[in-house]
Amino acid sequence: MTLRLRTEELSWRKIDEEIVALDGRRSDYLAINGSGALLWPLLVDGATPEQLVSALVNGYGIDESRAAADTAAFVSALSDQGLLVA
């Protein structure tokens, strides 16, 4: 399964170590930092959950189970906000 951010009515920029995004559908601003800022660009191009977990393991040196839990929580939050497409 490939996860991807929707492109319609969603614009974003990386500023320093943070992602700043505008969801035009909901008129919401999002500020994403830390591990979310590492995962966001991967989701722009489309990534599997395994690729996201691997990025966190490699980027932060954390164990795979913690990376999987953090990835699941981030993906769930994005999905709840309608930011992901199948």
Mean pLDDT: 96
Number of strands: 5
- The appropriate CATH architecture is Orthogonal Bundle
Strand content: 15-25%
Task: Predict the CATH topology.
Answer: Arc Repressor Mutant, subunit A
Helical content (DSSP H or I, runs of 4+): 40-55%
Runs in which pLDDT lies below 50 for 5 or more consecutive residues are none
Give the number of domains: 1
Can you describe this structure?
By secondary structure, the protein is an alpha+beta fold. It has one domain (4-85): Orthogonal Bundle (Arc Repressor Mutant, subunit A), CATH 1.10.10. The chain is built from 3 helices and 5 strands, in the order ββββαααβ. Helix 1 packs antiparallel against helix 2 and helix 2 (49-60) packs across helix 3 (64-80). The model has no long low-confidence stretch (mean pLDDT 96).
Spell out the blueprint of helices and strands:
Elements: E1 4-5, E2 10-15, E3 18-23, E4 28-32, H1 35-45, H2 49-60, H3 64-80, E5 84-85
Antiparallel strand pairs: 1-5, 2-3, 3-4
Helix pairs in contact: 1-2, 2-3
Jot down its keywords:
single chain; 86 residues; alpha+beta; Arc Repressor Mutant, subunit A; three-stranded antiparallel beta sheet; two-stranded antiparallel ribbon; 3 helices; 24% strand; globular
Give a short synopsis of this structure:
The protein has helices at residues 35-45, 49-60, 64-80; strands at 4-5, 10-15, 18-23, 28-32, 84-85.
